[in-house]
Amino acid sequence: MSSTEGAPQDVIPAQLLKGQKALVTGANSGIGRATAIALGRAGADVVVNYVAGREEADKVVEEITSHGVRAMAHEADVSDEGQVVAMMDHMVQEFGTIDVLVANAGMQRDSAFTDMSLAQWQKVLDVNLTGQFLCAREATKEFLRRGVVPEVSRSAGKIICMSSVHQIIPWAGHVNYAASKGGVQMMMETLAQELAPKRIRVNAVAPGAIKTPINTSAWETAEARKDLLRLIPYDRIGDPEDIANAVVALASDLMDYVVGTTLYVDGGMTLFPGFATGG
Ligand code: NAD
User: Which of 17, 161, 225, 244 has its CA 20 to 30 A from that of 210?
Assistant: First the structure.
């Protein structure tokens, strides 16, 4: 891979998040996996949440601990209130607190609109939106209980919501997913407004097209890749590390004055690339 392709994986300052405790949901695959590893590389102790696939979660834990920090896997369905509460209790018991929540778990259940079942609609809303609500609520309770610890961070806590360019780009055939991410945007901004006076920073990262299992069909064949690249001015498909690097930066005190923002990490996908030659 040439230096202009792919995301750099070794650019993170090792002590950037030293002493901080992070929870990443859906961390045994794709973006969550890369993010959990990047947070560990930056010096944080990390809880690797997963809903299925213990083996992959254990591998992520192993990779994180190789950076000299602590990590543990925790199975929980983010859309289940009891399981989220128990996960946060477990984290506080083991790590003492939480400083960074990356509400990343998400899924697609695609369908043409009139064929979409209520179950498909509900499942995606439950995981992508309600799951983030539940995790954010439980993390916030702990941030408020503990308050700011200046030696650890200037803020009492950071929440990073994993959104998508589809929080603003409509997406035919994916109405459940697009609606869930539109919801994430307004939830994030409302929480940011409500919690900023408590020194809690809430922001979102909105990935464009990133090579992960969620969207294999969009990049696995040469033809699909060509179609996809038409939508990406920067002319490369993203890697999970592109998102992980952005999350680490947002979580750190380098970004202490960044509140209620969506950071689009999309190679320019939201720049209306069709207008580069049309319009
Ligand atoms: P992925 O399928 O590799 O990862 C999704 C993760 O979420 C998996 O670990 C999965 O097990 C977990 N998950 C699903 N349901 C869960 C539940 N109920 N409880 C706990 N965990 C659950 O896909 P990814 O691309 O890494 O997606 C991660 C996030 O990034 C999602 O929120 C997705 O919407 C978002 N995103 C991805 C892209 C992309 O191009 N890959 C683009 C925009 C946004």
Answer: 17
